[in-house]
Amino acid sequence: MKLKVFTTDGKKSEEKEFANFPAFEGDKGIAAVRQVVIAHQANKRQGNASTKTRAEVAGSGKKLFRQKGSGTARQGTRRVPHQRHGGVAHGPKPRDYSQKINRKMKALAFQRALFDRASEGGLSVIEALEVKEPKTKLFNQVLTSVLPERGKVLIVDDQFENNAALAARNIDGVSLSEAGDLSTLDVVRYRHIIVSSKGIETIIARANGGE
């Protein structure tokens, strides 16, 4: 796989071959990507939504009015779902939404997501993510050089240099992630990903079975 590699200032670039980068033919791994993304999102759900049934809601159980003669429908208690302040029928209760994904599927999804993002031209490599001072303006200049037109961008490094981390954290639409923490959901969510040279080495090692 050939990726565009930029200099540290982002002004010059050249294409470089990354021999061990994941490669696919056909639709292999697409279903795994979908399943892993769903699992990531499900695992973030708190699952603490809770409503009260008619047995749990506070209120009198006394019959509201006599059975016959009122000219309206008979009512037995104020706690029924169709009464104001009554219980909720079939409402949510606390539950566990988490899903378990085995290691092989997780690895396959990560590899496929990387391949698709790189094939679309959304993965760029920069020699190093460094700025002389922790100033947003300096880091923004580098980003503009690498991506003149950008939306949301994910910046990935093996371990962020302090000045770069401070300079990048306040830029609108820019998120930071270390290569060891990069997930399939991150790769799918961001159309533009900029990775440092050290970061891409770690990512490729993870994709090929390293941790």
Compact summary:
By secondary structure, this protein is α/β, with parallel strands linked by helices. It is 31% helix and 14% strand. α1 crosses α2 and α3 packs across α4 (162-168).
List keywords for this structure.
211 residues, alpha/beta, Ribosomal Protein L4, Chain: A, six-stranded mixed beta sheet, 6 strands, 14% strand, ribosomal protein, rRNA-binding, Large ribosomal subunit protein uL4
Task: Characterize the structure shown.
31% of the residues lie in helices and 14% in strands. With 211 residues, the protein is α/β, with parallel strands linked by helices. The protein has 2 domains: 2-45 and 100-207, 3-Layer(aba) Sandwich (Ribosomal Protein L4, Chain: A), CATH 3.40.1370.10; 47-96, no CATH class. A 6-stranded mixed β-sheet has the order 2-1-3-6-4-5. Helix 1 (30-43) crosses helix 2 (103-119). It is elongated, with a radius of gyration of 27 Å. The model has no long low-confidence stretch (mean pLDDT 91).
Series of secondary-structure elements, N-terminal to C-terminal:
EEHHEHEHEHEH
Please tally the β strands and state the result: 6
Shape: elongated
Number of helices: 6
Mean pLDDT: 91
What is the CATH level 1 assignment of the largest domain?
Alpha Beta
The percent range for strand residues is 5-15%
The stretches of 5 or more residues where confidence is low (pLDDT under 50) are: none
Give the helix proportion (percent range). Answer: 25-40%
Question: How large, in whole angstroms, is the Cα Rg?
Answer: 27 Å
Which architecture of the largest domain does the CATH hierarchy give at level 2? Answer: 3-Layer(aba) Sandwich
CATH topology of the largest domain: Ribosomal Protein L4, Chain: A
State the distance separating the first and last CA atoms: 21 Å
Please, how many domains?
A: 2
- CATH superfamily descriptor of the largest domain: Ribosomal protein L4/L1
Content-based structural category: alpha/beta
Largest sheet: 6 strands, mixed
Strand order of the largest sheet: 2-1-3-6-4-5
